[in-house]
Amino acid sequence: MNAVLIGYGDIGKSLYEVLSPYHKISITDMATDRVAEGTFDILLIAIPFSPVFVPFVEHYQRQYTGKGRTRIPTLIFSTVAIGISDICAAYHSPIEGRHTKIVDMIRRQTYCIGKKKDSAMDENLFIATFFEEAKLKYDFFDNAKITEFLKLRSTALFGVNIEFARYSKQVADDIGMDFELVKEYDKAHNRLCREVGMDYCQRYILDPPEGEIKGHCVVPNSIILDEQYPSVFLKEIYRPKGNKII
Hints:
The chain has helices at residues 10-19, 53-64, 84-87, 102-108, 121-133, 144-174, 179-195, 218-228, 232-238; strands at residues 2-6, 24-28, 42-45, 74-76, 91-92, 110-114, 137-141. The protein is α/β, with parallel strands linked by helices. The protein folds into two domains: 2-142, NAD(P)-binding Rossmann-like Domain (Rossmann fold), CATH 3.40.50.720; 150-238, N-(1-d-carboxylethyl)-l-norvaline Dehydrogenase, domain 2 (Orthogonal Bundle). The strands form two sheets. The chain has a five-stranded parallel beta sheet, with helices on both faces. It has a two-stranded parallel sheet with strand order 6-7. Strand 1 (2-6), helix 1 (10-19) and strand 2 form a beta-alpha-beta unit. It is elongated and about 70 Å long.
């Protein structure tokens, strides 16, 4: 297919690397002043979520919708607030993975595709064909709110566990315990769970962060989710870390 990709940051570049062997991908990216010209079969969104996300998407939908079409088929890969894809009349498929191995994980993941609101069968088939032609696995979900929440929950769960690692380190320090013993204990627990077929009981093995949680996913995403569905767990992820937890 002939696609236009909006956004060429870490996610956009990784998507390009995975998709370009199978689809013709043109790039529009404000950060590098790249602007694709023409009309396209599908619009791919990989820009960060922001207060102007919806106007940006709608702008590009108008720009790249060819004559005779109501709206170009739109697929959002960005992590967004719950309900945003419906506003944009778009499908949503979140990227899952750590940035150090993001390209490999993009190739291997099964894409959760949240359907566009009131999508027709032929529209769903078109999106399915896009993934099939790129040799990517996928599953459809009834609506985009499901996939939007699944992604926000994924990074929030990681963030909560990072903060619990911080708490565990503070307790270990207070009792004069080497934190590596905590990690070894949990690794042994995970091995035991695998041996007896209880994979669902496995634990994260994480080092505690120094200061604020770094990166551009965990903290911003926890704020997005907390604004819609407030939780003390989410607030713990992004609260200032000037004081000890204990």
